[in-house]
Design goal:
This protein has twelve helices and 28 strands. The protein is an alpha/beta fold and 517 residues long.
Length: 517
């Protein structure tokens, strides 16, 4: 992308953004580490992403909160906020400052993680769909509080989308392929074809989790941008030798300096009323920070000369990523406007999720993938440190399709994809002759799965409930430290985890406030 073109987009969007923000009350945001260094807060939330922002907003209703985000603000960035620029931010990645940070798993599959206030909700497709009732019951959440937390999110940043011609075609093609029933517009996770919610509004503007900060008390929130947490600071208490979180140590994200800075939890005389350091840094960030803080398998920490704080062997374990396959509706690139998915097919007893969008491959070329994922993979891997620099990606392995059940399900997924891609609806829309050749054999589909397996960016695990954190998301063996994000999940909820992560931030904030009362 030409630099002058980017500046033009930025200028136009700044004008729009200043108008849109009139009347909105966002908390104080700063990239000056000296404004925060040495200060104390009731709660420190590490990661201003999908779960971190609603969590900070909720806690701020009664307490002071420091929200630390390693990336920048999304406001004024047209590549983040405008539907017409959907996907372009994923093409512009760098080592320290881009809103999307790229990484390649040890499986050789390229992947991305959010690095901006709003996290992945600022760079994803914006499709909003709740978790199933079975998921909520399985994890043991309070159903009434869950529903209230979903509605709190939805009333602020979720919209009923208008379908484009391509999304109507996707809808018809899913039905042609037998993904029934047709459920119309729904936020629920139900089998069949449906239109989901969207964080893009009717004017084509993205609303991220950062917008939820407006629902908090702006006088109680400080947002520190462009700062990467290096580790949690602990203190020893009395003769019981308890490990207690005292604060965080952080550095500037831009790589310009390795100087460290500290921020602390308030320590009132009544120790029962102390707050927490809460990690909401995502499925790569949270286990990485725990390891850098000395919480994890002792043998692994010893390799990096990290002092042991808690020997938790589950940190970094149980890493899963939903394997996906994509087929192009047309092999020739187009020059269509990029378009996020708004319709989803939920098939094979919730085991297969399928969608269609229009993705940019350059500034003036797009492709039209029909993509599907396996909802409940059995294969899992692990996360380990690459170095002690928190700005570097950790080493992660997902072991895609390592289990035979995943292979068998991928074959079924491939068969469904072929039926969709060869539908009359897509052929008519693209002006192509409908393909009537024989469907691929099972062996051919297995080769397709092996060669073309890709991520859906719904990776999770590394700090699982029952292994690293308890049912209240407190880290085992450490006081004053919690993890609240997708790293705690044993499976990815709903069609995608965004809605449930937004809800989880609100939900856990409510639960923490109730406990304090």
């Amino acid at each position: 992308m030409g630099f002058s073109f980017y500046l033009l987009l930025l200028f136009v969007d700044l004008a729009l953004c200043s108008s849109w923000l009139q009347g909105q009350t966002l908390p104080h945001m700063t990239s000056d580490v000296n404004e925060v260094s040495g200060k104390s807060f009731d709660y420190i939330v590490v990661g201003g992403g999908t779960a971190g922002c609603p969590l900070a907003a909720t806690l701020s209703e009664k307490f002071s909160v420091l929200l630390v985000e390693r990336g920048s603000s999304p406001y004024g960035n047209p590549l983040v906020l405008e539907t017409k620029n959907y996907g372009l931010s994923l093409l512009r990645t760098d080592k320290y400052t881009s809103v999307a940070q790229s990484f390649i798993s040890n499986d050789g599959v390229p992947n991305l993680r959010g690095r901006v206030l709003g996290g992945s909700s600022a760079i994803n497709g914006g499709f909003y769909s709740r978790a199933s009732e079975d998921f909520v019951q399985k994890v043991g959440w309070d159903k009434e509080v869950v529903m209230g937390a979903y509605q709190w999110v939805e009333s602020r940043i979720v919209f009923k989308p208008e379908l484009t011609p391509w999304q109507y075609v996707a809808e018809f093609s899913f039905l042609e392929a037998g993904i029934f029933p047709y459920n119309g517009f729904s936020l629920e996770h139900i089998e069949g074809t449906k239109v989901g919610g969207s964080v893009f509004d009717e004017w084509g503007r993205r609303h991220t989790s950062a917008d939820l900060l407006e629902a908090g008390n702006p006088n109680n929130i400080t947002v520190l941008l462009n700062a990467t947490v290096k580790n949690v600071i602990f203190r020893e208490k009395g003769n019981r030798n308890e490990t207690i979180a005292r604060g965080i140590r952080f550095i500037q994200s831009d790589g310009s300096s390795s100087q460290t800075y500290d921020a602390y939890l308030n320590q009132p005389e009544n120790s029962c009323s102390w707050g927490d350091v809460i990690l909401a840094a995502g499925s790569l960030g949270s286990p990485q920070i725990l390891l850098l803080s000395g919480i994890g398998p002792q043998k692994h920490l010893k390799k990096f000369n990290i002092q042991l704080a808690a020997d938790l062997k589950g940190v970094g374990k149980g890493m899963k990523d939903n394997p996906g396959i994509a087929l192009l509706a047309d092999s020739k690139p187009k020059n269509f406007t990029p378009e996020p998915p708004k319709v989803v097919g939920i098939a094979d007893h919730f085991k297969i999720i399928i969608e269609a969008g229009i993705l940019p491959i350059s500034l003036n070329a797009t492709v039209m993938p029909i993509a599907a994922k396996l909802a409940f993979p059995e294969s899992e891997g692990k996360l380990e440190l690459n170095s002690t620099d928190p700005r570097e990606n950790p080493s992660v392995t997902f072991n895609y399709l390592a289990k035979e059940k995943d292979w068998a399900r991928c074959v079924k997924l491939g068969q469904l994809l072929e039926r969709v891609v060869r539908s009359e609806s897509i052929a008519f829309f693209l002006g192509l002759e409908r393909k009537n050749e024989l469907m691929s054999t099972e062996d051919e589909l297995r080769k397709l799965c092996k060669k073309n397996v890709r991520t859906f960016y719904h990776y999770h695990g590394g700090c699982s409930v029952g292994s690293v954190v308890d049912k209240d998301y407190r880290v085992y063996g450490v006081k004053g430290l919690r993890v609240v994000d997708g790293s705690t999940f044993l499976e990815s909820p709903g069609t995608n985890p965004m809605a449930t992560l937004l809800m989880l931030g609100r939900y856990q904030g409510i639960k923490i406030l109730e406990d304090r009362n």
